[in-house]
Each structure stands twice: as structure tokens, then as C-alpha cells.
Design a protein that fits this description.
seven-stranded mixed β-sheet; alpha/beta; five-stranded mixed β-sheet
């Protein structure tokens, strides 16, 4: 069966680079909404979706987390992409730097030091910023240096991100029936639908008691009422492990008035 992957576009985004680890270019389709990616996977329109969930500097992509809580899908793979930002333009001078809001934030120090007077314009993706620079010589873009290859654009600055450790974490999602218990990491979502002192401690203790490392814990508003939260939890253990199953049994008892969604277990890889 051909893998039909849906990811953030247009062509040339970091999401596109991650998607190439999943599908061939001719089988990759682009959209500009993370929510629509996860909806399309849940509806069976595509076999795989690639969504950003976390950046090492700017933190979580909340739209992705909320969509994962809203739709029943499986997480089948994790892809880590190191972020290499370049300043790309037809030439100097330019009046505006256009890129995704996170890319602009990740290069804040470089821009303040070298181009303190330019206007910053947030667009839907780094690739969209490159398109703006291609069409308008008064606009520069921030994107991967490869975006300037075979083009009229020049790389005016390379590796301009404020921190060399910058990386983005993507999840590969698939229809819920593709969920697996195999893999070294597991993601799940908990909606306790209760609130009392010590609740969060009770949710975390079953993992500490079984020597399971929590790699991420994050709360998001449930949308039901003020002060009511959904918890996104990642652990460094697979669902195939008895200790994981035992911990989740305790979690499901705590959340008996709500729900627990096991997104699945998966392995991680890095795509440069």
C-alpha cells in the first residue's frame, strides 16, 4: 500500500523534510493547518500525517496537542529534525524578514544585532517566507539554507538560530487501528474529569513507582470549564512492557470519570 502523507506546506518546510522520511515526494500532500492533518488521518483520507509537537526552544505546538486530544488517531513514529536557519533574500538591502513565528523567535538575537530596523512578518511557514522573498526583493526570509538552492535567492547568513541545539520533534500519526504496543516511547492523554489536592501527584506516582521515566508532561485546557485540564504524557517505555500496563491501569482508575487515550508506542529517529 502506498504511503500517502499529509504535512504542513508548502514544499520546503521543515515538516516537508520530516515527511520525506515517511513517503516519497510524489506521495506527499501539503496543507497549512495542523488540525486539518489530524482530522484527515482520523477520517481515513490519508494513511499518515506528520505534525510538529515540540521545539527545543519555543516549546510545544499547542494546536497539535489540542487536535490529538480531539481526534482518535495513532502515533506510530517520532522524527527529530535539527533546525538550521538561514537568512535568504534576493540581495541586500531589504525592509522585511518573513518566516514562521517560531523561526523569527528562534533567530531573535541575530536579527536584533544585525538588522534591528527591519519589520518582522509572521507567515504560515518558513517556506511561505521564502516564497515572499522570491516574489519581492524588499523581503528576506528565514528558512533552511537548501531553500535557496537552484534559485535566484542568496544565503546572506547561515546557522543564524540563537541556539545550536535547536530541534523540532514531529509525530507521525496514522488511523487509530494502526496503533501498536511496540516501541521505546509511548504517548497518551489523560482527562481525569475531577479536581482535588494531590491529583497530579497521583497521576505521576504510578510511573515513578515502576521506574518509568516521564519525558514530557503538559496540561492543556479541556474546553469544558475554567481550570479543567487534559494531560499529555510521554514516557520512555513501550506499551508492550508489563510495568507500563500496570501503571496505566492505575491511571485509568484515577480517571474513571473521564478517559485515557493510548496514542501508541513508537521509536524515534533523527532526520538532518
Amino acid at each position: 500500500m502506498t504511503t500517502q502523507a499529509l504535512t504542513l506546506g508548502p514544499s520546503g518546510t521543515y515538516s516537508h523534510r520530516a515527511a520525506r522520511a515517511v513517503a516519497d515526494d510524489e506521495d506527499i500532500t501539503f496543507t497549512e493547518s495542523v488540525t486539518s492533518i489530524i482530522e484527515s488521518i482520523a477520517n481515513g483520507e490519508y494513511t499518515h500525517g506528520i505534525v510538529p509537537v515540540e521545539n527545543s526552544i519555543e516549546g510545544s505546538v499547542t494546536e497539535s496537542l489540542d487536535a490529538l486530544a480531539e481526534h482518535d488517531v495513532a502515533v506510530v513514529r517520532e522524527i527529530i529534525t535539527p533546525i538550521r536557519h538561514a537568512l535568504i533574500a534576493q540581495d541586500e538591502p531589504f525592509d522585511t524578514v518573513a518566516s514562521h513565528a517560531q523561526a523569527l523567535a528562534q533567530c531573535r538575537s541575530y536579527l536584533e544585532e544585525n538588522y534591528p530596523d527591519v519589520e518582522l512578518e509572521a507567515v504560515a511557514s518558513t517556506a511561505r517566507g521564502v516564497q515572499r522573498a522570491r516574489e519581492d526583493d524588499s523581503v528576506a526570509a528565514i528558512g533552511h539554507p537548501a531553500n535557496a538552492e537552484s534559485d535566484s535567492l542568496l544565503v546572506l547568513g547561515e546557522d543564524i538560530q540563537d541556539r545550536s541545539s535547536n530541534a523540532t520533534r514531529f509525530l507521525v500519526v496514522a488511523p487509530a487501528d494502526q496503533r501498536t504496543e511496540a516501541g521505546g516511547k509511548t504517548s497518551f492523554i489523560v482527562y481525569p474529569n475531577v479536581d482535588y489536592p494531590g491529583l497530579l501527584l497521583e497521576l505521576l506516582e504510578p510511573f515513578a513507582d515502576r521506574d518509568i521515566n516521564l519525558t514530557r508532561v503538559e496540561s492543556r485546557p479541556s474546553g469544558e470549564r475554567l481550570g479543567d485540564y487534559v494531560f499529555h504524557i510521554d514516557i520512555a517505555a513501550g506499551l508492550y512492557e508489563q510495568r507500563t500496563q500496570d501503571a496505566l491501569t492505575v491511571i485509568e482508575e484515577i480517571a474513571e470519570d473521564g478517559w485515557v487515550r493510548r496514542l501508541g508506542s513508537y521509536d524515534s529517529e533523527t532526520v538532518v
